[in-house]
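Q: Hi! First time doing this. I have a protein sequence and I read that you can turn it into a structure. Is that right? Here it is:
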Amino acid sequence: MRRRLSPPALRPKPVPAHAFPRFETVQFAGLPVARLDRARTTQLLIDLAVKFRRGDRPWISTSVNGQVLSNAARDGDLREAMLFADLVSADGQPMVLASRQVTGFDLPERVATTDLFHDVARAAKSRPLTMYFLGSSEAENARAVANVRATYPHLRIVGRMHGYHSHAEWIRRVAEINAVGPDLLWVALGVPREQQFYMRFAHALPNVGLIKTSGGLFNFLSSSASRAPQWLQDNGLEWAYRLVQEPRRLLLRYLTTNPHAAMLMLTQRQFGRRICHLGRDRHER
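A: Yes, that's right. Below is the predicted 3D structure, encoded as structure tokens:
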């Protein structure tokens, strides 16, 4: 399920911190959200994973939507993990639609991981990078990776692994991933487990270029879940489509997080934008 690459010692040396990219962010309930569209996010992820490796740990890219916004306000550990991430993308169309009223600046578009994966996979045809798929059940993981291989035969997939392990197994498996050293590690464990994963193991993965938290991505890649019609996505109603599909699992979640997230955006508005300079004390006005 995995293939060893060149020894980490043969990899390019880390780039000096002053050369790392910058981008604009705006604040949603105290979380810095990148003002990047999908195309620029794709380019940045590949740059960070391949060209601008840190060397001490992977870069961390995660996403925020209404559920995460609500849970981070209630859970200090999740909030800390979100603030630790190097790049936080808006994976919620309601945030995009409300961005000017909440922050004074528009977010260019929703950057959903389920779309972003395909953007990265297509870009990898001309900008090769290695990928590893971690998360979900063994069967779901295997179906997802098989479908990805069939759709994108040019991708260099160097390993995959399900996401259910004991404490001792996690330590061993993380060491195996670090030995393979993928450029991009897709971590699909769900919130908050994927944030707990990178807070616990990021510094044990210095040979990995970038971790991208992925939520339910593998369910879509395996075809066990389907996306909402585009018009529902564009109007911020994909949650309603998912609710119809999985009412028992999602009804309570949406009843408790959607109104709370809306209240947070209305009552904790913070106008202005900042420059995030990666690799430093990152946010400057």
